[in-house]
Amino acid sequence: MIDLDANATTPLLPEVLEAMLPWLRGGHANPSGSYAAAKLARRAIDEARGQVAELIGAQPEEIVFTGGGTESVNTALFSLDRLAGQGRAVVSAIEHSAVLRHVEKQPRGCRLVAVDAGGRLDSSDLEAAMADAAYVSVMMANNETGIIQPIEEVMEIARRHRLPVHTDAIQATGKMPIDVRALGVDLLSLSAHKFHGPKGVGALYVKSGLRFEPMLSGGGQEAGRRSGTENTAGIVGMGVAAAMAKSYLTDSNLAALRDAFESRVVAGIEGVIRNGDPSFRLPNTSHLSFDQCDASGLLILLDEAGIACSAGSACMTGKQKPSHVQLAMGIPEIQAKSSLRFSFSRLNTLEEAMAAADAVIKAVGKLRRVQGSGVGPVVVYSP
Ligand SMILES: Cc1ncc(COP(=O)(O)O)c(C=O)c1O
Question: What does pTM read for this prediction?
């Protein structure tokens, strides 16, 4: 399989697995215990805390380990719901469902901020939403298009209105530098499996001094901010993945792979549209629409050819609705339903990128032939 679905998840790096294994084999001691084995586990967790903090320019005590990205996001928003002032949650229209499903349940409601045709937040609409805002949550980079959001502008507007800000940095981590001090955000969510760490482990950055209300009550772990016995192996894995991500951040290979893939696809077939403003993209993500092709048909053909990628975002795959992200960008429904996301990881090779491009060219050609000739509506392929 050629795995071009890194925005859905990434494989564990061998170094991450090696670091986790001792904690899965014998290191079962509860890190809250007072005996030697427990203290070792506690030390390993604290080392990982330092590694994650270093990746985003935080202090170790500002890092709270969680049970994954969705939990980090919900924990951040839960606290903001409780402690931010009266008013509505203000979030971008292209947030992940972890944010959207949370804020739409709020009794005070939420305000969705528009994005432009390139997939970037519309700052003037954010400004307009400030009148009755309680807090702001805008993702650092979109999971579907890879478009990087203007968090500096978000911070400037929110600060003027004295509002706390959360950013979902789950897709940005390991793909672009993150510095919480320079940004000034109050809360930031991370998920280990998006940067070659294990699944089911995440972290929440909570700015020092920020008032915070925990979502999970219980034994008071993580300095009372996230109760529940820590997942030592997972946390250790996240720490090593974070340390490795920091060292390969400056590696420009990802963009080169993505660009080589895109160039070959665009040169090989007509009617390919690149979605999103290319000057603000994560280096690993390619979001393409294919004229006269239904994404679900393309996915079947590409799967047969051994290529893993996604239609829209992974969470939307299998559902008939076009993605909310593309609709928010004003992409016509027919184009939205003909789009695929290819997302590279540092484990992909140039040979894979080229082979995948050839497979895409072949699949699009086949799907268009099924329809006959000429221009026409999207084709639904059934094998
Ligand atoms: C932007 C974004 N936020 C949140 C999540 C949820 O993270 P997790 O899968 O770790 O719960 C994802 C995962 O797809 C994501 O891409």
Answer: 0.95
Atom of ligand 1 lying closest to residue 139 CA: 1
**Ligand 1, pocket-test mutation among 95, 139, 143, 282, most atoms within 8 A of CB:** 143
What is the chain's percent helix, strand, coil content, to nearest 5?
Answer: 45, 15, 40
CA–centroid distance for 68 within its chain: 12
Q: What pLDDT sits at residue 248? A: 85
73 lines ligand 1 (CB under 6 A): yes
Looking at the domain assignment, is residue 376 inside a domain? no
Asked if residue 139 has its Cβ within 6 Å of ligand 1, the reply is: yes
The residue whose CB lies within 8 Å of the most ligand 1 atoms, and thus the one to mutate among 5, 10, 70, is: 70
Q: What is the pLDDT of residues 26-81, one digit of tens each?
A: 899 999 999 999 999 999 999 999 999 999 999 999 999 999 999 999 999 999 99
For residues 25 and 346, what is the distance between their CA atoms, to the nearest angstrom? 28
Among residues 188, 216, 248, which one ends one of the domains?
A: 248
HSE-CB of 78 using CA atoms within 13 angstroms: 16
The average confidence (pLDDT) of the chain is: 93
Q: 336 CA distance to ligand 1 centroid (A)?
A: 21
Domain that holds residue 299: 251-371
Domain count, the chain: 2
Q: How confident is the model at residue 252 (pLDDT cuts 50, 70, 90)?
A: low
Nearest CA residue ID for atom 10, ligand 1: 69
Query: What letter represents residue 202's amino acid?
Result: G
| Ligand 1 closest atom vs CA 192 | 10
Q: State the pairing for strand pair 339-343/285-290.
A: antiparallel
Mean pLDDT of 187-206: 98
Would you say residue 375 has pLDDT above 50?
A: no
